[in-house]
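Lab notebook, bench 4. The sequencing result for the construct came back, and we need a structural model before the next group meeting so we can plan mutations. Quick request posted to the team channel:

Model the 3D structure of this chain.
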Amino acid sequence: MATFNYSVRDKAGKVQKGSLEGESREAVSAKLRQMGFIILELDQQGALAALGKVKIGGGAVKPKAITIFSRQFATMINAGLSLTKCLSILAAQTECEALRTIIAAISKDVESGQSLSESLGRHPKTFPPIFVNMVRAGETGGVLDEVLVRLADHFESEQALKGRVKSAMTYPIAMAALVLIILVAMMVFVVPTFEKMFASMGGELPFMTQVLVDISNFVAGMGGVVTLVGLVAANFAFKFWKGTNSGRFIWDSFVLNAPVVGQLTRKVALARFTRTFGTLVSAGVPILSALDIVADTAGNEVVSREVKKARSAIKEGEAIAKPLSESKVFPSMLVQMIAVGEETGALDAMLNKIADFYDEEVSTQVDGLTSLIEPLMMASLGGVVGAMVIALYMPMFQVITLVQ
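Done. Here's the predicted structure in C-alpha cell form:
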C-alpha cells in the first residue's frame, strides 16, 4: 500500500487537501471520483512526479507515427485483444525502427506487471506528458480505447495547425531566397562585366550606377566574406540567446506584439492551449496536472508563464476563468466561454469548441496572408531587378544622348 497526497474540489467548490492510502494511483483516483470530488492534484508521497515536467522534443519518432500507433492500438483494444498482444502486434508491424524498439521495451514492462502509463513514462522523448497522463486516466476509467482515439485526433489537429503555418511561411521564404540568389549572381558576375565596359568609356558614372558598382565590389571582395561570416555568427548568437529563459520570453513577447505576425502567433498559441487543455480534461486528467502539461507544451514562453500563474491561483481555490481574465494574453471571449463551461460542467466540450474556432481563424488568416504576400513578393522581386537593370543601362543612355 502506498500513500498519496491529494488536492480536490468538492461539489460546493471548496478545495480540500489530505492523504489517502491505496494500492495504486489509479485506485486512489477512482475512489476520490466515487466520493464526488474533482481531482486537482494527486501525488505519491516520496515519489518523483516528473512526468508532467518533461519537455517534448529530441525524439527520433515523428508525431505522425505516434498518431498511427494510437489509432491502431485503440482499434485492437476495442476488438478485445490484451495489452501484451496489442503491443507485440504493433512492434512487429510498425515501420519506424526507433518506435519498434520502444514498443518492444514497453511490452516487456507490461508483461512484468507495470501499468501501461508507467511504461510509456519511461520514454518521455517519444511519448510526451499529455500522452502518458491521458493513458493513465484511460486506464483508471476503463476507457483506454476512447482515450487513444482522442490522442490520435489531438495529434492530427496539432499537425494540421503546424502545417497551415508552415504553408504560409514557405512561399515568402522561397521567394526571399530566390531574390537573394539573383542579387548575388548579378553583383558577382553581371555588374563587374558592365564595370569594365564603363571604364573603357571614361567619364563619370551616374550616382545610381556608381552605388551599384560599389556594392558589387564589396560583395565580390572580402566584404562579402566578412558579411557572410558575420551573419552566421549572429545567427548562432541569436539562437543561443533565444535558448535562455529571459531571451525566449523577450523574443516571444516581441512576436506576440508584432503588427501582423503577432495576431497569427497569438491565435496559434490559444488554439494549442485550448486543444491540449480540453483533451486532457475530457480524459479525466486532474486540472492542476493538466495545466502543468499545457504550460510545458504551450510553445510560447509568455503563454506558459501566464498558465503557470493561473495554476497557482486555481490551486488556492480560484475558478479557472478568474486568473485567466487577469491576463492580457487570453481574450475576454475565451475567458467567458471557459466560465460558462465551468458553470455547466462541460468544460472539455467548451475548450474543444474554442480550439476549433481558433483553428478556423488561423486558416482564414493564413489564406489572407498568402494571397497578400504573393503579389508583394513578386512586385519586390520585379522592383529590385528592374532598378538594377536601369542602373546598369543609365551610362548607355548618357552616351547615346551625347552622340546625338
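The chain has three domains: 2-46, 58-127, 153-404.
Will bring this to the meeting.
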